[in-house]
Design a protein that fits this description.
Blueprint lengths: L2 E2 L5 H8 L3 H7 L1 E5 L1 H9 L6 E5 L6 H9 L4 E4 L1 H5 L10 E6 L13 E6 L4 H13 L5 E4 L8 H7 L8 E4 L1 H11 L2 E5 L6 E2 L9 E5 L8 H6 L2 E4 L11 H17 L1
Parallel strand pairs: 1-4, 3-4, 6-7, 6-11, 7-8, 9-11, 9-12, 10-12
Antiparallel strand pairs: 2-5, 3-5
Helix pairs in contact: 3-4, 6-7, 6-10
């Protein structure tokens, strides 16, 4: 197989363009870095649409699985070329492109625990929340309003493969409330509010629908009013709140503990 040694190669440039949102939208593809994440994707029913890897590693059994499953371009590259596709601080030996999936609320099974986040702007937080959903058995992440792209390289990397196991849905507040009513879910919002309970002192219901606000502004008034109950995380230091990804993780695991009790 030809080894690609130029970053100007047209097929390499096509993959590299997927680092930008407009090209991800145009192509309907996103990038995932690393052999382990690629195998997790494959085991979760995602087939690579293209793959670039470090030439000379074709005999690695897991890499061979990815190569054989790929439906499009298979590019053997030099390390220098591959580093233009992968993270430069920690370059991976494999970068694969997968088709973007866009489920709707109608496709989302109620499950026992779901997480919703409003105007989530940081891709690291989004990826971490996906990872927390996966770890706590959450059945989906619902994005409300203007959120960061869950298929950005940064969000996919932070998800550590959870982008392939946790459905991500974009929705509006009205649709979310209609979904809640249809499935009998309890909407619990995290907020610094006088009516908020200690997050360890409530029944989250089943399904539990957990709502987080924007990293800096929290939940807007209309969302606070729409919640069935509000919770807060007690803070013993000078900070008044936790990072949104940490807060979401605590709520997911507390809901899990309550539902198992």
């Amino acid at each position: 197989m030809e080894v690609i040694a130029s970053a100007a190669n047209a097929r390499v440039k096509r993959l590299r363009s997927l680092k930008e949102k407009k090209y991800r939208r145009a192509e309907g593809l996103f990038l995932a870095e690393g052999l382990r994440i690629g195998i997790e994707a494959l085991d979760s029913g995602w087939e690579p649409q293209a793959i670039a890897y470090a030439a000379g590693r074709e005999d690695h059994p897991q890499l061979r699985r990815l190569i054989d499953a790929t439906r499009g371009d298979v590019l053997a590259c030099t390390p220098a070329v591959l580093s233009t596709l992968s993270g430069k601080d920690n370059p991976q030996a494999v970068v694969a492109a997968f088709a973007i999936r866009s489920p709707t609320l109608a496709d989302l099974a109620p499950g026992a625990r779901l997480l919703a986040a409003e105007q989530l702007r940081d891709p690291g937080n989004l990826g971490t929340l996906l990872r927390a959903c996966d770890g706590a058995g959450g059945s989906g992440l619902i994005l409300l309003g203007d959120c960061t792209d869950p298929f950005s390289v940064e969000a996919v990397r932070a998800s550590m493969g959870a982008i392939f196991t946790v459905p991500v849905v974009n929705a509006g507040l009205g649709d979310l409330l209609a979904w809640r009513d249809r499935h009998g879910a309890t909407l619990t919002g995290a907020a610094l509010h006088a009516a908020a309970w200690d997050y360890r002192a409530i029944d989250y219901g089943r399904p539990a629908l957990l709502l987080l606000g924007n990293e800096s502004q929290g939940l807007p008034g209309e969302m606070i009013d729409a919640c069935d109950q509000l919770v807060r995380i007690p803070m013993r230091g000078r900070a008044d709140s936790l990072n949104v990804a940490m807060a979401g993780t605590l709520l997911l695991y507390e809901a899990l503990a309550r539902q198992q009790g």
